[in-house]
From TrEMBL:
InterPro entries: Kinase-like_dom_sf, Prot_kinase_dom, Ser-Thr/Tyr_kinase_cat_dom, WAK-like. The keyword Phosphoprotein does not apply. Residues 1-19 form the signal peptide. Residues 138-450 form the Protein kinase domain. The chain crosses the membrane at residues 97-117. GO terms for molecular function: ATP binding; kinase activity. This is Wall-associated receptor kinase 3. The lineage of its organism: Eukaryota, Viridiplantae, Streptophyta, Embryophyta, Tracheophyta. It comes from Forsythia ovata.
Amino acid sequence: MNSHPVIVLLMLLGSMLMAMRIDSASQRLLSCPSSCGDIVVPFPFGTTHGLDESKACQGTCKNLQGSYLCFCRERFGGYGKKDGTGCHPKRRAKASIFLLIASGLFFPAVGSSWIFWRSKKKRVVKLRRGLYIQNGGLILENMLWRMQKPKVFTAEDLRNATDNYDESRVLYIDKHNEPVYRGSLCDEVNVLVTIKRCVTIESLQIQEFINKLVILFGIQHTNFVNLIGCCLETRYPLLVYEFFTDKTLYDFIHDNASFLSWEIRLKIAEKTARAIVYLHDEMSTPIVHGNIKSSNILLDSDYTVKVALPALDGYLDTFGYLNREWDTFGYLNQELDTFDHLNPEACLLGKLTNKSDVYSFGIVLAELLTGEQLLNLDRPKEGEIFLDKYFVSAIKEDRMREILVQRLVEMVDIEQLKKVAMLTERCLRNQPEERPTMFEVATELQNVILELDNDPRS
């Protein structure tokens, strides 16, 4: 019973506080129309209709206790206040969502593609590195570190140089039925090069292959087709030579549409002889070329001589390949396609010396003097189907005039022709010790050229 007055008192106090809150809220509501409009909206706070919405909101206004909110109409988004972002069509939001989704799909796809590409590139790089080591790249680096290094090209370098080995870049097909390409090195101001593929190299031959490669890099002579560099990142090593015409002395001699004057023939012979002298006498490691023949002597339109370098490959068998051993003179193993330009002891014993090149050069001189093919089954005498035997037999029987190019006989001093013919015969003797050295051959040819230059009739 004593608690009832207390309860009544508490109820009276609660009523007084409620009245005070209503009065305070009523005072705050009076300030709302200044934002939403001019009409007072009574408590509880309802949504206005028909107010002057242009004053504060871009859409619909709603009063709150002491404040207000703006709402955008249907299909519009934003905060609705004019002094804020206002209202805008919800389609932009949809576009943003689309771009967000597209980005979410695009970037993972690009990332996955990049990871796949990088993985594939790493596999290619690893494969090329393996081929580089397999083909003797590390051995070559070790042998060349003290000397001026030739260029070691990447597979990508040569692919770019040949337009991905385009057919239009093929110069000719070699005897191994492999295309030989003309390339252009962009980093060398578009320097033209010739790119050739080596034949298969067995793993046990890598050291020998690299030894020969280093020697060939050392041949730097104006009358040799110089080896610029190589690529060891491909299945078969690629060799890069300076570019030169593929027109050969053989083509000029046996082309009936052209005629080489006596002066040009002498100069071609002398320049070729000097190039061989360089191999025999002027290199730190003397080399027997072993493959001197007219088809390996390149000529441009001005008859500039470029002798093809010794080959890198070859084995001996009875069908025309010679395996050559290193001896105190030193020479390279290489492949020979015929025996027509070889001396007798090379054919019989399978061994070459510097006098072997002398014999082969004698056959080139015989071609220049007679214009005859190396092999002719129509020659009447037995044993003369080969040019060397045919020429020596004619000289011994004093039939020189009969076998020489008739236009030369008619136009050239017969004594000069005789001097070169006798030199040719000495080069073609069976016994190596009876042949002159290449230095002696080059000197005698130079003396004939000096006589020709001093002859008032020339």
